[in-house]
Each structure stands twice: as C-alpha cells, then as structure tokens.
Amino acid sequence: MATGRTHRPATRSRGIPEATVARLPLYLRALTALSERSVPTVSSEELAAAAGVNSAKLRKDFSYLGSYGTRGVGYDVEYLVYQISRELGLTQDWPVVIVGIGNLGAALANYGGFASRGFRVAALIDADPAMAGKPVAGMPVQHTDELEKIIEENGVSIGVIATPAGAAQQVSERLIAAGVTSILNFAPTVLQVPEGVDVRKVDLSIELQILAFHEQRKAGDAEAAAAALLPPAARRAAEAAANRKGPDGDVPAVMPA
Ligand SMILES: NC(=O)c1ccc[n+]([C@@H]2O[C@H](COP(=O)([O-])OP(=O)(O)OC[C@H]3O[C@@H](n4cnc5c(N)ncnc54)[C@H](O)[C@@H]3O)[C@@H](O)[C@H]2O)c1
C-alpha cells in the first residue's frame, strides 16, 4: 500500500533493484508464517503463491541474495528468514518516533506488529500541550518541544508522521534537522525533503480510489458482457441507447426481448 518516493537510484549500491527490495517484506511475511508453523522447506511456487508474487520473479529476486534453493527440496525457510531480515536491516533494533498522536497516531502506537519486526517505538510526540504526559499504548506522550532531544538521545533515524497535512512539512523539517533520515508519512501531502532522505507515504484513500477505478471497470465489463448475451434486436437497441447516453449518464432501460 505504501508508495515510495526515494532519492535512491533504481538499483541499490549492493546491486539489489528497488523493485526486489519492495518485494522482500512480502516474502518475509509469508516465510514468517511458514516458520511459525515449523515448515522446514518451501518450493518457489508455494512461496510465490503465499507472497502473491510470480514464481519466476521470486527466483530472480532470491538470486540477488545469493539464494538458489535446492532442486527438488526448495528453500530452507529459517535460512531465508535470516537472509531477508539481514538484507532489510531487521537484525538490528530501529527506534522510531511517531509524531501526531491523534486517532491514527494512537492506533499506530498500539499496533504490536512494529516491535515484533524490530521497530521499537521510542517516543510518541504531539504538539498539543494538553496531551503531554498522557499515556498512550503504555507510554507518556511527549511535547514537540522535546522532539530534537528525543531524536538525539534515542539515536532515532526513522520518523512516522501522523499529523494533519498542514503540519507535516514543518514536522519533517524538524525531524530531518534533528537527524532522522527516513520518514513514513501518513499525512496526505507531498513532503519536500533533501537528498539522502527516504520518504514512504501511506494513503488508504488513494488505495480505495484505485479499487473504485477497478470496480467501475468491472461494472462496465459486466454491462458489456450482458449486452453481448442479448438477442440482436435488443442488442441494437441497447447500443443505440448507449449512444444516446447523456452527460448525466441517464440511460433508458432496455429489457431483453
Ligand atoms: N494514510 C492514511 O491512510 C491515513 C488514514 C487516516 C488518517 N490519515 C491522516 O493522518 C493524519 C492524522 O489523522 P488523525 O485522524 O489521527 O487526526 P487527529 O486530528 O486525530 O490527530 C492529529 C494529531 O496531530 C497533532 N498535531 C497537530 N500539529 C502537530 C505538529 N505540528 N506536531 C506534532 N503534532 C501535531 C494534533 O495535536 C493531533 O493530536 C491526517 O493527516 C490524516 O489525513 C491518513
């Protein structure tokens, strides 16, 4: 769901293409599920299906990791979990701060999936003085006055922005000036960041709009398929009605003969 905007070349310096990097978390999620079920090995086809990726693409992706699997046996699940985690930098602890502890920020703070993937929420920061000291997900919210100090003391390099759109640019600038070099932006705005800072943005409404586009297409296809089943005279009448379709989309109903 995240759409990336990074200042990195399409191929990382170690020769792993960005598109492969973007798929590694999908493989890891599928592999972690297999590992939890104590499955020792997996074929490329099974893993590709579980990750929702084409199996030829998966084999190519894994070749960048130097992992080729064993013919007839497949890939060693535990070893791949280790290899991908290492490649993604998940074998080390990443402290993150969440800025903007409203509905979304509080929900993110309460999400247990960060910690289990190596992301420790180091601090929750909000500009509202009334929120300072209030516990959210078992942590006291800290005021934005403390932002620079928190980043420095915790060695934070990843910041999550969940403020209103109007505040996001200024928040990103403060985070970056304090030492943050990666931002996950939930605010619906495009951030201007200097070279070397990675921004990923998450916008659920954009995803819904894309689904709406596909729904509209499906509805159009279904209409076309239904029209194709009509007897010729009724089909001609339906086509004529479609041609008469006004700007408001008002189409006279045509019933099959
Ligand atoms: N990406 C998505 O899919 C998605 C989904 C829901 C909401 N959002 C966006 O997330 C943001 C937060 O939504 P919400 O419903 O939690 O809003 P909210 O109003 O409940 O919370 C916003 C919080 O940000 C704080 N804030 C305002 N300015 C700040 C600043 N300069 N520094 C630090 N904190 C500041 C406010 O005090 C408030 O607590 C909005 O931009 C919203 O559009 C995105």
UniProtKB/TrEMBL annotation:
Residues 26-65 bind DNA. Residues 89-190 form the CoA-binding domain. SUPFAM superfamilies: NAD(P)-binding Rossmann-fold domains, Winged helix' DNA-binding domain. InterPro entries: CoA-bd, NAD(P)-bd_dom_sf, Rex_actinobacterial-type, Rex_DNA-bd_C_dom, Tscrpt_rep_Rex, WH-like_DNA-bd_sf, WH_DNA-bd_sf. SMART domains: CoA_binding. Keywords: Cytoplasm, DNA-binding, NAD, Repressor, Transcription, Transcription regulation. Residues 238-257 are annotated as: Disordered. It is found in: Cytoplasm. Modulates transcription in response to changes in cellular NADH/NAD(+) redox state. This is Redox-sensing transcriptional repressor Rex. It comes from Streptomyces candidus. The gene is rex.
